[in-house]
Amino acid sequence: MNESSALLTDRYELTMLQAALRSGAATRRSVFEVFTRRLPDGRRYGVLAGVGRVLDAVENFRFTTAQLDWLADQKVVDEATLEWLRDYRFSGDVRGYGEGEVYFPGSPLLVVEGSFAEAVLLETVILSILNYDSAIAAAASRMSAAAGGRPLIEMGARRAHERAAVAAARAAYVAGFGATSDLEAGFAYGIPTTGTAAHAFTLLHDTERDAFVAQVESMGRGTTLLVDTYDLGEAVKTAIDVAGPELGAVRIDSGDLTLLAHRVRRQLDDLGADKTRIVVTSDLDEYAIAALAAAPVDAYGVGTSLVTGSGQPTCSMVYKLVARAESADPDAPLVPVAKRSAGAKASRGGRKWAARRLDAEGVAEAEIVGTGPVPGELTDRLLHRDLVRGGEIVGREPLSAGRGRHLRSRAELPISATQLSRGEAVIPTEYLAFG
Amino acid sequence: MNESSALLTDRYELTMLQAALRSGAATRRSVFEVFTRRLPDGRRYGVLAGVGRVLDAVENFRFTTAQLDWLADQKVVDEATLEWLRDYRFSGDVRGYGEGEVYFPGSPLLVVEGSFAEAVLLETVILSILNYDSAIAAAASRMSAAAGGRPLIEMGARRAHERAAVAAARAAYVAGFGATSDLEAGFAYGIPTTGTAAHAFTLLHDTERDAFVAQVESMGRGTTLLVDTYDLGEAVKTAIDVAGPELGAVRIDSGDLTLLAHRVRRQLDDLGADKTRIVVTSDLDEYAIAALAAAPVDAYGVGTSLVTGSGQPTCSMVYKLVARAESADPDAPLVPVAKRSAGAKASRGGRKWAARRLDAEGVAEAEIVGTGPVPGELTDRLLHRDLVRGGEIVGREPLSAGRGRHLRSRAELPISATQLSRGEAVIPTEYLAFG
């Protein structure tokens, strides 16, 4: 999709723009940051995903004539603001964590710098993308850790908004899944797609044998036959009878998967089909996957729990103004700012950098967040990459880069990171040099 | 958005198509139904939303040349199947519950009839839409019941995938919300949009007073001022000082909302601003809304919990083949079919109709689901509408129709339906005439 992202925006971004244009504050140089105050309950690390999609959204944040006409017609903003929006394109800078990177409370995930006017407009769409994609990536990462080396297939499209499903497939791929059922995710992002048949295909034919014959004739013996429409044992027998021991795989989509996997494995082996793999796909989540570790399962298909973030369908990332110029003068110094009201919503002012501190064994021991210049003696790994410079997208990378980054950064975490039990963030966030 | 929906589809729909084209079964007349086996834990009714979006998706389910080239390049299906897809458009019939209608386990929400080939392809995108939109509508309905007559504003865009957010605003509007912050939802669906300013606007200016002056000058005294950036009491005082007692509203976005609403109401009244309304917007869900019933609150803004379905971010709707012809002959009789394996996934075969039975006082007492012809003596309200006939979309209606239908059908339910406590489905589903 390459269409305008400009109206994927809360109305108040535009009304703030209008008021700031009028007050003259709109041109004050400003720094907004994306961060989260906490991880979801019990989670030990977060996983950033959606960075590439954010870059697309920034690039496509242009108002079309039809959109401007609608804004005028609805009197969302005044004429002067419409004129300003007509020429809008982001001309500032964005730095941030790389796609797939793990994160912790307070990690400055994205730092957006520009005039207030141009930076405030991006709030909603940036948060939409990062909050959803990172929720999926966090769940996917737990599942891929639980699966050990066994392949994972994302197949949750039917349980998510149809476009969210595509983003979910992408985020899952970043966090360790190997394939998706979603064709659009293949088309748009080059993610490997997979899939063979549903129960409807068996029910359509007069007999299960007819269905298996039709499928094998069409897709070859390497296909995956779904064996739980009627009687599982009969189906496995028929499957090997039809396809021979070269059958690629059988899929089990219901019942006690541990028990059935053992039974089907034995049956397949007895039939000489010891290379035929077993794929299981019934309401799996990271706990069910972990519980199947000792069962003879060759691949997992995961749907609902993946695309809903396994109980945490969004993150709590926010986009906050942390510093702004004293005046509209382009050389005016930046002043740190922060909400100060009572309650849990206070935040730390000032533009931030971040680094991950590793111990002598290369195990992460702290997330270091600082303001001001990075100390010259700092030996920790800095976490920000340049994403946008003077309005130009400079941070694009192939999805495989995010995939690799995720595996590396997760591997650096203390072992307890991938325990499924509830716990605190696996490393602390330490703040340096706050004034 | 008017672009192709054809790849928002699981790969196995296309591979089943290929195998069925080859076996000859593809042309068998088939009936698929969308239903759910259960409501989410503790919920007493479901709310169908997304019907209008399904009709758009059916209409836009055409493969573009670029999509076909990609399918060929990836060898997803063979040449004969690609040729078939090139001319695809759905030419069958769809009947179903109206948008906004309440539903129960087993309700046949959508009945899709056509050749196996043309009907199977629609599975994924139909389920994506209905499962997401109905999850949001169910949450929105609980919130709107809890809010009594007070207005509700949807403002969760930043916590959902950017396109899902638009669908969420639409579903919330069907189920009783009055407005949304999401501009695209206004642009695409005509939903009223609202919004004024965030904390960033106050922080941008040198003082809170400067910010309030700028906002009131730009948006008039009827605007809503956000009063919890620094000190709430000071901010309310400044707000009335700047805008006068004609100030439209103040918004509180953090803290103990019951306590603060009372305090702010008293302060506003003391300042002579007894018409100035109070809007609250901090992490609300249906329980928090209900708890604020006795507080002097005039409107609720709801974000995260709405767009994530308040703990139930998806429904468990499935799309199942329930009947298909004995042969490819267009006059061949339909045979009911159903998965029969062990476990909870068995289903009832046969094409279904549905009706709601009301008692003498007009209170719903049962969901009646039957196969075969509708009994002539049936006096219960039939629930299916024609949506697509011979491939032509005939069921479009304005969003206001779904909004009205939801209010009416919810009002018919027993009073316990809108209790927030956990419980069973508020009326039973009764099956008639299953052979």
TrEMBL record, chains A, B:
Recorded superkingdom: Bacteria
Transmembrane segments: none
The Nicotinate phosphoribosyltransferase N-terminal domain, residue ranges: 7-131
Enzyme Commission number, as recorded: 6.3.4.21
Signal peptide interval: none
Catalytic activity: 5-phospho-alpha-D-ribose 1-diphosphate + nicotinate + ATP + H2O = nicotinate beta-D-ribonucleotide + ADP + phosphate + diphosphate
InterPro entries the record matches: Aldolase_TIM, NAPRTase_N, Nic_PRibTrfase-Fam, Nic_PRibTrfase_pncB, Nicotinate_pribotase-like_C
Post-translational events: Transiently phosphorylated on a His residue during the reaction cycle. Phosphorylation strongly increases the affinity for substrates and increases the rate of nicotinate D-ribonucleotide production. Dephosphorylation regenerates the low-affinity form of the enzyme, leading to product release.
Enzyme superclass (EC): ligase
Record-level Gene Ontology MF annotations: glycosyltransferase activity; nicotinate phosphoribosyltransferase activity
Pfam families: NAPRTase_N
Metabolic or biological pathway, per its Swiss-Prot or TrEMBL entry: Cofactor biosynthesis; NAD(+) biosynthesis; nicotinate D-ribonucleotide from nicotinate: step 1/1
Keywords assigned: Glycosyltransferase, Ligase, Phosphoprotein, Pyridine nucleotide biosynthesis, Transferase
UniProt similarity note: Belongs to the NAPRTase family.
Function: Catalyzes the first step in the biosynthesis of NAD from nicotinic acid, the ATP-dependent synthesis of beta-nicotinate D-ribonucleotide from nicotinate and 5-phospho-D-ribose 1-phosphate.
The protein, known as: Nicotinate phosphoribosyltransferase
Organism of provenance: Streptacidiphilus monticola
